[in-house]
Design brief:
- The complex is a heterodimer of chains A (245) and B (572).
- Chain A is of the alpha+beta class and 245 residues long.
- Chain A folds into 2 domains: 98 residues, Ubiquitin-like (UB roll); 138 residues, Orthogonal Bundle (Fumarate Reductase Iron-sulfur Protein, Chain B, domain 2).
- In chain A, 37% of the residues lie in helices and 15% in strands.
- Chain A has 10 helices and 7 strands.
- In chain A, the strands form 2 sheets. A 5-stranded mixed beta sheet of chain A has the order 2-1-5-3-4. Chain A has a two-stranded antiparallel ribbon with strand order 6-7.
- In chain A, helix 6 packs across helix 9.
- The radius of gyration of chain A is 21 Å and the shape is elongated.
- The N and C termini of chain A lie far apart (62 Å).
- The longest helix of chain B has 25 residues.
- With 572 residues, chain B is of the alpha/beta class.
- In chain B, helix 9 packs across helix 10 and helix 13 packs parallel to helix 15.
- In chain B, the strands form 5 sheets. In chain B, strands 1, 2, 6, 7, 8, 9 and 16 form a 7-stranded mixed beta sheet that branches.
- Chain B is globular and about 65 Å long.
- Classes of the chains: A alpha+beta (245), B alpha/beta (572).
- Chains A and B meet through helix 1, helix 2 and helix 3 of A and helix 3, helix 4, helix 10, helix 13 and helix 15 of B.
């Protein structure tokens, strides 16, 4: 088998550059296999995050030939091998070293979200059809690729005003939980800035779990925010009852 | 001196943020303790996230006849009666409540027609017992626990690796470690330490385990004076991927067989008829793994040396609904559409039944202040674990460990930190940078994986085990002289250099225990001793530290009370 050429970002917070490595191609090889080969043979200190190697944990996100991907699911035979394959860290997060970025901001956003809060005296029975809708959101493996491509974060850097697609998906999973009794629309509107999303669907395109982030999570949440805050009758009722919908 | 180090103080320090660690953290917090959780990866990436099939709990939602007694009996039979019977009893009794609790914290399980939690069949379980979410149950579980824990206020130290437990006299005083990001050292002072670090699968070449599973917790505990038990019992899951090479070992959930998938050899024969005609494809994992291995070895294997696993007789929509991640995994990584044709599968190192010896009720080890739960602890599963009993184990004994650790913290003074121990731990970590020559840690790791795969695998015999032990000694020498390139900034080669030490400790314990047990039982198969031996049915192998070496002794299993004996004797 011939070799593939990789150009991999090596560097840290202070900058870096692309380094070239040759890797012998094996059948079915993925980019993460190549990174491991490089660690074992050429660059033992090459920093890479990974865990399951099967698309279930969302650790190995990077930009392969400029496209945000899980490296464990990116097959070499799906890439043009007559030219070097570039592997760079996710652009929207600060580089720590090589392909490892500082994703701690995501964990801070997550802390703002009130947890599942069952309605009082609820009966713990649910219909599979209701559950199906929410299970889609709960498939999220937190690879943060959606956060990485979202214009609001990637180009406009509104990390302080905006939660990002990952956390709209998480909130959709809570809001649409058949037994949840809390409203998170105020959080969505005020702290997580859902209004800043202009539904370009970039997040949906990169989701390795095929979650319909824009159509099934963000748009319905935007509608709930509109209903709660911009429909005068609903606004008045909400003020009176202090309850959701 | 210790002022030079970043120090964090907690009542309870939990090492590991998988299911057991997070469940322990939640319980310790509920008891009023201040809790720190340290994990090598980002939060939510621990191996629990990769658990697929489900959580075993006798809820009796699908089969009304199920109850804890049947679950207890199945667990003991699966473990070939070597289990700690009290743990098996507590586990079977408490699992349903732990599952309901998860649901009340927001987990969304698949449902029955009448709206309850759906349960599926699995190997060795008499009834349909596994509460599940398609084939991504572990993800649902870890997200639920993670969100609950974070909301309650646990402090999480992510991407931080512990390299030594600190002692104050005989008791645990905390832990020493480094931040992966910048390589700086950190000290934790704690009254109680819960070890929830999972398994040791990275010692084998073909494994379903990720880079994290290097036996850290067991080795740390051993170094600090704890006893390790049942180390010969390593579970090889019957169905890992075998092709292409890069995915070899990645798990194929038992739920494929639970949902009706069948195993065949290259001649199309359902070979499980010859190994376990009664339970067939849903026999216990030890039996199925040996069957697939034997078929391949005797020339009836698939092109890449495995067996065929076929679910394509079920409607495609059903397969995609019940096994979505298997469908994607094979389509994307192996170019196989499992709704149309069979998968190729073979045994892969998956789970460690042995581990730190603990008290059943409190999960406390024989070192004051040290607790262990989940895969890092021994006892519940005996000689072989049933599928689905791991997730329930994490919940039941994670909770018990958290509770007991918090209780212990209430009753003890803050321990003293010993500067000399911290200095020693620092020196050990910095040494590899000072060497000019020596092996690459990656080379030593590769050779260890070959050694364990070849000499301490599914089938064992005396000469192989002795050869394995000799090679492990040689690898220990090499590991002590490895050389590390680069800086302390997120340096995987440096991290592996330290992980090797843990891997070698647990590997030696496995080989030593396997050599000692001259019989075949559960996951431990000796070619030279193929039968059960009554003498061994009442004994656990216990390993403890003896100077720089290992001491192995036999400990008799406690007599089972008569009410439990009656349960075991029942037919169904």
């Amino acid at each position: 088998m011939p070799d593939a050429t990789f150009k991999i970002f090596r560097g840290d917070r202070d900058g870096g550059e692309l380094y070239e490595y040759k890797v012998p191609i094996a059948p079915g090889m993925v980019v993460l296999d190549a990174l491991h080969y490089i660690q074992a043979h050429d660059a033992p200190d090459l920093a890479v995050r990974w865990n399951c190697k099967a698309g279930k944990c969302g650790s190995c996100s990077a930009e392969v030939n400029g496209r945000p991907r899980l490296t464990c699911k990116t097959r070499l035979d799906a890439l043009p091998l007559d030219q070097p394959i570039t592997v760079q860290p996710m652009k929207s997060f600060p580089v720590l070293k090589d392909l490892v970025t500082d994703v701690s901001w995501n964990y801070r956003v997550n802390k703002k979200i009130p947890p599942f809060t069952p309605r009082p005296n609820v009966e713990w029975k649910m219909d599979q059809r209701e559950v199906d809708r929410v299970q889609e959101f709960r498939k999220c493996i937190e690879c943060f690729l959606c956060q990485n491509v979202c214009h609001v974060l990637r180009d406009h850097e509104k990390q302080e005003q905006f939660g990002g697609p990952r956390f709209f998906v998480r909130i959709a999973g809570l809001e649409m939980h058949p037994l949840d009794g809390l409203s998170r629309t105020e959080l969505l509107k005020e702290e997580l800035g859902i209004g800043l999303c202009n539904i370009t669907k970039c997040c949906t395109e990169v989701c390795p779990e095929d979650i319909h982030i824009t159509d099934n999570a963000i748009i319905p949440l935007k509608e709930r925010v509109v209903d709660d805050f911009y429909d005068p009758v609903r606004w008045f009722l909400r003020k009176l009852s202090g309850k959701k919908h | 001196m210790t002022e030079k180090y970043e120090i964090h103080e907690h009542d309870v320090l939990i090492i590991g943020a998988g299911g057991a660690g997070l469940r322990a953290a939640i319980e310790a917090l509920a008891e009023g303790a201040s809790v720190g959780v340290v994990c090598k990866s980002l939060l939510g990436k621990a191996h629990t996230v990769m658990a697929e099939g489900g959580i075993a709990a006798a809820m009796a939602n699908v089969d009304a006849s199920d109850d804890w007694r049947t679950h207890f009996r199945d667990t003991m039979r699966g473990g070939k009666f070597l289990n700690n019977w009290r743990m098996a009893q507590l586990h079977a009794q408490e699992a349903p409540e732990r599952v309901r609790e998860l649901e009340q914290w927001g987990a969304l399980f698949d449902r029955t027609a009448d709206g309850n939690i759906l349960q599926r069949a699995f190997g060795g379980h008499t009834f349909k017992r596994l509460c599940h979410v398609g084939d991504r149950t572990g993800l649902e579980m870890i997200r639920t626990l993670q969100d609950r824990g974070v909301h309650l206020g646990i402090d999480v130290y992510m991407e931080c690796a512990i390299t030594r437990l600190l002692k104050d006299g005989e008791r645990v005083a905390g832990a020493f470690g480094y931040w992966r990001e910048n390589g700086r050292f950190v000290v934790f002072r704690a009254k109680s330490v819960v070890i929830a670090t999972g398994g040791i699968g990275k010692a084998w070449r073909i494994t379903s385990n990720s880079w994290e599973y290097t036996g850290d917790g067991m080795a740390l505990a051993f170094d600090a004076g704890a006893e390790l038990m049942d180390m010969e019992f390593v579970q090889f899951h019957p169905t890992g991927m075998v092709w292409p090479p890069g995915v070899q070992g990645i798990l194929v959930t038992e739920a494929v067989r639970g949902e009706g998938g069948v195993l065949r050899n290259k001649d199309g024969e359902r070979f499980m008829e010859r190994y376990d005609p009664e339970r067939m494809d849903l026999s216990t994992r030890d039996v199925v793994a040996r069957a697939i291995y034997t078929e391949a070895k005797e020339g009836r294997g698939t092109e890449h040396g495995g067996a065929y696993l076929d679910i394509s007789h079920k409607p495609p929509e059903y397969v995609k609904k019940k096994l979505p991640s298997m469908y994607h995994q094979f389509r994307e990584l192996a170019d196989v559409d499992i709704t149309k044709g069979p998968m190729e599968v073979g045994p892969t190192c998956h789970y460690m039944m042995g581990g730190i010896r603990v008290d059943a009720e409190t999960a406390q080890a024989n070192v004051p202040g040290m607790f262990a739960a989940g895969e890092a602890a021994a006892g519940l599963h005996g000689a072989n674990r049933l599928g689905g009993n791991s997730l329930s184990d994490l919940l039941v004994f994670g909770r018990r460990a958290g509770q007991a650790a918090a209780e212990h913290a209430k009753q003890t003074e803050t321990p003293k930190l010993d500067d000399a121990q911290v200095e020693e731990a620092t020196r050990e970590m910095l040494e590899p940078f000072e060497r000019r020559d020596g092996d690459s840690p990656y080379d030593v790791h590769r050779d260890l994986q070959e050694t364990m795969q070849n000499y301490v695998g599914i089938f064992r015999r005396e000469e192989d085990l002795k050869q394995g032990l000799a090679e492990i000694q040689g690898l220990k020498d090499r590991a002590g002289r490895v050389h590390v390139d680069g800086s302390r900034l997120f340096n995987p080669g440096w991290h592996l250099a330290r992980d090797l030490k843990s891997l070698l400790t647990v590997s030696e314990a496995v080989a030593l225990s396997a050599l000692e047990r001259q019989e075949s039982r559960g996951a431990h198969s000796r070619i030279d001793f193929p039968q059960y031996d009554e003498k061994w049915s009442k004994l656990n192998n216990i390993i403890s530290r003896d100077g720089d070496g290992m001491r192995l002794r036999h400990a008799p299993i406690a007599e089972m009370p008569s009410d439990l004996c009656v349960i075991l004797e029942k037919k169904k």
